[in-house]
Specification:
Layout: H1 4-8, E1 39-40, E2 45-46, H2 48-56, H3 60-70, H4 86-102, H5 108-115, E3 117-118, H6 135-138, H7 146-167, H8 169-190, E4 195-196, H9 200-216, H10 222-237, H11 243-262, H12 269-296
Antiparallel strand pairs: 1-2, 3-4
């Protein structure tokens, strides 16, 4: 039950809807706002008037970046899609679950042998092995150690927070899977006789795509380029790391991102799907014909 003093104090009610009681303040002007008037900000919420003022005060560089990424009115990709990165969370959950199962004594080797990538298992006509093409992608689920798993999942979480809301869930998942496929194809070409495990190919694809998209919208990508270079060089000089998967994932991830930025308008959606499908077909053709020649030589 409210007192007359409470009801007479207008600070206890939304300034835009005087009949609605609220205890939430706009973080800019400190006026009371009801749930309908609240817009989520990096810290707290802001009212519609402050939101409009913030949009008007954007710098020319910010406005240009948004226009370039949106591709004008009706763009197929938006600067931000909003919502939670549920695909990232799902990938984290599935991969982490399998990684934790690997820690149980007696499970690590069978899982790696069932899901890890080994190029000869793709060519039953050349070797006395079954045809197991799923390994091109299931390799993303198994890791060599807990540290390997933790580093990849940390990178996936950090990159997914930016990329998934920007691209949308379907495009983001396609980017992840096609980049992982590219990593496996590159391993089959450059290191056909070695076992490979881990999601590093897909992670490098996400990192390379962030570089391409950032460059497209006019952002400063120097930091991303440095991180990508350092991580790739680390794989070259440290034993036990598949730099081939890193290279394949980065190259294919960059190609996928290039397709996205060149076909971002709504009317180009069919072309985008065709180009992505063509890239997948090209990877399948390459892995089907090139490595057997290498293995037979």
């Amino acid at each position: 039950m409210t007192t007359p003093e409470f009801t007479s104090n207008r600070d206890n009610f939304c300034y835009r809807h005087p009949d609605r009681q609220s205890f939430v303040l706009c973080q800019r002007c400190m006026r009371t706002i009801c749930p309908e008037c609240q817009t989520q900000a990096p810290v707290g919420v802001i009212c519609p008037e402050c939101m409009n003022a913030e949009r008007k005060n954007r710098t020319p560089a910010q406005k240009k970046a948004e226009r370039r990424w949106r591709g004008g009115r009706g763009g197929a990709l938006a600067a931000t899609r909003g919502g939670r990165p549920v695909v990232t969370y799902a990938l984290l959950a599935i991969t982490s679950f399998i990684g934790l199962v690997q820690l149980i004594p007696g499970f690590k080797d069978p899982l790696i042998q069932a899901l890890g990538f080994f190029a000869p298992f793709l060519y039953p006509n050349l070797f006395a092995v079954p045809f197991e093409p799923w390994r091109l992608l299931t390799v993303l689920l198994v890791h060599g150690s807990f540290i390997h798993l933790a580093l990849n999942m940390l990178a996936l979480w950090m990159l997914g927070q930016s990329l998934e809301p920007m691209l949308g869930r379907t495009r983001y998942l396609a980017l992840y899977l096609i980049s992982g496929l590219g990593g496996s194809v590159m391993v089959a070409i450059l290191a056909p006789g070695s076992w490979t495990v881990g999601a590093s190919g897909a992670i490098f694809g996400l990192l390379a795509s962030l570089l391409i998209i950032g460059r497209h919208i006019g952002a400063n990508v120097t930091g991303i380029l440095v991180i990508l270079g350092i991580n790739f060089a680390f794989g070259l000089f440290v034993g036990g790391i598949s730099w081939q998967a890193h290279l394949g994932g980065a190259v294919v991830g960059a190609l996928v991102a290039l397709i996205y930025v060149k076909t971002k308008r709504r009317e180009q959606r069919t072309l985008q799907i065709i180009l992505l499908s063509a890239l997948v077909v090209l990877l399948i053709v390459v892995v089907a014909f090139v490595p057997p020649l290498i293995l037979l030589s």
